[in-house]
Known about the structure:
The structure is a single chain. By secondary structure, the protein is mainly α. It has one domain. The chain is built from 4 helices and no strands.
Amino acid sequence: MGARELRQSVVALASLAWAVDALAVGDVDDLWIRQDKFLHVAACAGIVLAASCLAPRKDILWVALALFIAVIKEIYDGPRASLRDFVADCVGILVGLEAARLRHASKDAHESNLF
């Protein structure tokens, strides 16, 4: 699976969770714009970036790790689990994928200029 298809899959997953959330009667206190959502985005982006340093060019592994951690965290939350948190996790994964892509592109450009 290429990077483009991977991004499209994560966007589709986030869109599905968003649609299900829109149909469900959720927690009134679980707003879309909250510090908690920012922390979900930042944590998943950080997981993807850290994984990209440990296993360069293995996009599917980065996404799998971040999704696994996101799902386990929501399972751990039990009745407080939130589809909105999961959508924020998916956004963080996309941010992390793009940052990792830019990091690797910059590194490749720098290495090609050395010779």
